[in-house]
Amino acid sequence: MEGLFAFLSFQNIVNIFVILGGVSAFIIYATQRRASVKSAFTMVINQIDGIEEVISKLRSTQADGKLCNEEVFKSDQILSRNF
């Protein structure tokens, strides 16, 4: 019984809470990091999808199998940037 009381001293309880706080902080950090990496991958995939859509729109304006420069420079994507 004395061993249990010695283990439950104030200093040991404080150390246990410090360890629990550190472990929970690490778990939260790892979870947030995983979420940010997943968000970055999602953004890249969305940009690739947008680029593929633009390419398909530009290919639909081809003349004789060649992309006309006029069609490229007057496309909605370039005109929307106020050039």
UniProtKB/TrEMBL annotation:
Keywords: Membrane, Transmembrane, Transmembrane helix
Protein name (Swiss-Prot/TrEMBL): Uncharacterized protein
TM stretches of this protein: 12-31
Superkingdom in the source lineage: Bacteria
Annotated organism of origin: Pusillibacter faecalis
